[in-house]
Design brief:
alpha/beta; TIM Barrel; two-stranded antiparallel sheet; transmembrane; eight-stranded parallel beta barrel; transmembrane helix; membrane; about 450 residues; phosphoric diester hydrolase activity; PLC-like_Pdiesterase_TIM-brl
Length: about 450
């Protein structure tokens, strides 16, 4: 029966692939896998179907940690309404804490009388999960030293071990919470697990590219390792490294001028609390910015753009607005529609701003997704800007199907660059332009790719 459960787990891929990511079918498959798992855990109990269904639905609280492959495919197949997702992303710091509190409250309500009894089992489960992940990463690190085809075969095998091992540890936890130790016939279990891995082997090939890409490099906030972000002095230091684009952030001041700044206030870089939207440009330009041991001043976008054009440096412009999106877009169009070079690109975390820029015939315009835990929304954006920490092959495949490139930020570590290169992303946004460009000439191992999938799958 345990082998059937493992087969049910890895067969989620065929359901996902052959149904074209049919969300409803995957949900049914997910519930089937959940009920089958609980039926096996409760096999020594005389349960009715209604009781089994009740246990399974209550146990759905564990789904994010269960290792049920159907859960991941279902999450990334579901395409949330773009407007709803945009509201959630732009208010995530208010919404996510509420969700976390509600989630923890439900769990604590269910185990309030058994906390001291359950805690050792949960701690053991977390420890084994961490031990499994670390062990797989160490083995893959050794395989990367050998390199070549062996390294790719190794990472495919180890990822399948992770998927099934995480699922088994979840089942073991459920049994221990019911004071039922897991018993295995290791001979038959070994044969069964080998069969599962063989059947799932074609799936693993879809998640690890044979060759690493050479993505374009964009300098994040216009810096290259050191310097004060979003300043003209940092631009001068970064241009010699020849990034494809320099990414900057724009905000509007109280007198409706555009200033190059990521933060909505000046506290972090100046030590003084000034809300940029409520302060005039001239006052802001008199402030001294300090970062990485260096000093600079705020630049108006007009000055920054003029400097970039003199040194022939294309820009990726992020429009930031906490409110009044339409007014910001209108002001930007009026002031710069005829002044921007054709090489300029744009992106924003506000879908409203993305649509307004597209309506004004700015192109290309990207939509920034701070994290990707569902499928990509249907938008009019020309590309997506995503955080590398939540990147996974399913998102990459969806973007490719939509014909839209992925701009991945902020990739500074070597192992993160390895992962991104093996996921075939088109563009990398980084604070370390020169280091990343040097690393692109080095062979990329699969350890980073495995680590990213261990975290996201």
């Amino acid at each position: 029966m345990l082998i059937i459960l493992l087969l049910l787990n890895v067969s989620s891929y065929w359901v996902y692939h052959n149904s074209g990511g049919n969300t409803l079918l995957l949900l049914v498959w997910l519930l089937l896998g959940l009920i089958a798992s609980y039926a096996w855990v409760e096999r020594t109990q005389a349960l009715t179907w209604w009781q089994l269904l009740g246990h399974s639905l209550r146990g759905s609280l564990w789904l994010p940690f269960s290792g049920l492959l159907a859960f991941n495919f279902w999450r990334y197949s579901w395409q949330p309404p773009s407007g709803l997702l945009d509201q959630f992303l732009n208010h995530r710091w208010q919404i996510l804490p509420l969700i976390l509190v509600l989630y923890l409250s439900i769990i604590s309500f269910g185990v309030r009388h058994y906390f001291s009894k359950y805690l050792p089992h949960v701690t053991r489960w977390l420890g084994l999960l961490l031990l499994l992940a670390v062990s797989l990463l160490i083995v893959q690190w050794g395989s990367d030293q050998i390199g070549g085809t062996f390294s790719r075969y190794s990472v495919r095998l180890l990822w399948l071990v992770w998927l099934n091992g995480k699922y088994l540890l979840w089942l073991d936890l459920l049994l221990r919470l019911r004071q039922q130790p897991m018993t295995l016939d290791y001979r038959w279990f070994g044969v069964g697990l080998l069969l599962v891995i063989i059947l799932a082997w074609p799936m693993s090939g879809q998640f690890f590219a044979k060759t690493a890409t050479q993505p374009q490099i964009i300098a994040h906030r216009g810096v290259n390792g050191q310097g004060v972000q979003n300043t003209i002095s940092a631009l001068h230091s970064t241009v010699p490294e020849q990034p494809s684009l320099v990414e900057i952030d724009l905000r509007t001041t109280h007198d409706q001028q555009f200033i190059v700044s990521h933060d909505a206030d000046t506290r972090r870089l100046t030590g003084q609390a000034n809300n940029i939207a409520h302060t005039n440009l001239a006052h802001l330009q008199n402030l001294t910015l300090t970062e990485n041991g260096q000093h600079a001043h705020y630049a108006s976008f007009a000055d920054y753009l003029q400097t970039a054009q003199k040194v022939k440096q294309p820009l990726l412009i992020e429009l930031k607005a906490s409110d009044h999106f339409q007014r910001m877009a209108r002001e930007f169009v009026q002031q710069y529609h005829t002044k921007l070079p054709a090489s300029a690109q744009f992106h924003s975390a506000s879908l409203t701003l993305v649509n307004l820029l597209k309506q004004a015939r700015f192109t290309p315009v990207g939509y920034i997704l701070p994290f990707t835990q569902t499928g990509l929304p249907a938008t009019h954006a020309d590309f997506y800007s995503v955080d590398w920490r939540t990147l996974n092959p399913l998102i990459v495949a969806q973007a490719r199907q939509q014909g839209k490139p992925l701009y991945v930020w902020t990739v500074d570590q070597v192992w993160a660059l390895q992962a991104v290169r093996h996921l075939n992303t088109a563009v990398v946004i980084t604070d370390q332009t020169s280091q990343v460009q040097q690393q692109l000439h080095q062979p990329a191992g699969y350890n980073g790719n495995l680590l990213l999938l261990l975290a996201n799958f």
